[in-house]
Amino acid sequence: MPLDGGGAADALEEAPVFDERLFFPTQAAKSAPTAAKSAPANAEADYHGHRERLRNRYRDGGDAALADYEILELLLFRLIPRRDTKPIAKALLTRFGTLGGVFGAPVSLLKEVKGVGDAVALELKLVASVAQRMLKSELTGKPVLSSWKSLIDYCHTAMAHEAREQFRLLFLDKRNALIADEVQGLGTVDHTPVYPREVVKRALELSATAVILVHNHPSGDPTPSRADIDMTKTIIDTAKPLGITVHDHVIIGKNGHVSFRALRLI
Asked: What is the annotated signal peptide range for this record (predicted)?
């Protein structure tokens, strides 16, 4: 049978032309979604596995089984559910030095750490507040002078990492039980204005018979200054004629505290 030259030509014109240059880009485009999906899935599996292992270590060994950054990680797990929180925990400790420094830092400084937003910063401050309330509950209504360690622990938690000086008054009844804990004034990094008459006036309003003065040194060094000593003497001299005793003046620093009574300054 003779070939129909015209028909063959028509068939060649209608057949799709295959360009091999399009093969590899097409394959890459098809495989890209699969790769994109598998990488996050693996990453998610990794940090979920890490979280479970860390929880198990804490469950079995308590806080002694974990480093400080791992304790922070555990806390951050529920605040940041879909990220690796280890770098954030380590960055917080690098910036603020200790767990106490992290929880004592103001919200504005916490938010300067990469990965810490409003929600995380506020949750960290909430933990600090819970710790303070817990320690304060050990003092309220109890003789403070026989619970001195608890008093120092509370004051250190509440004040040691404040960026500004804070002057706190602990008012006691005739049994030396705590009846009120108030911040009388906030100052600068190295000075707080204190008004002895206001201290005595507030003690009379609360029917307090004794008071303990507490303030912090943001520098970290609790050594009393000459101004601290003079101010304490003025408060004592103002309170004594009205039957109000100043039991002590405690200065809180990041790494310790100083008691005026222990130094025989009272």
From this structure: none
Same domain? For 54 and 108 the reply is yes
The 10s digit of each residue's pLDDT in 41-84 is: 555 556 667 778 888 888 888 878 889 999 899 888 888 877 78
Of 107, 112, 139, nearest to 125 by C-alpha is 107
At residue 140, φ and ψ (nearest 5 deg) are -60, 125
The tally of domains found in the chain comes to 2
User: In CATH, what number is assigned to the domain containing residue 183?
Assistant: 3.40.140.10
Q: Which domain holds residue 203?
A: 141-259
Q: Would you say the pTM of this structure is higher than 0.85?
A: no
| Closest by CA position to 155, among listed 222, 206, 58 | 222
Q: Which residues have CB under 8 Å from 153's CB, separation 6+?
A: 135
Question: Do residues 101 and 149 both lie within one domain?
Answer: no
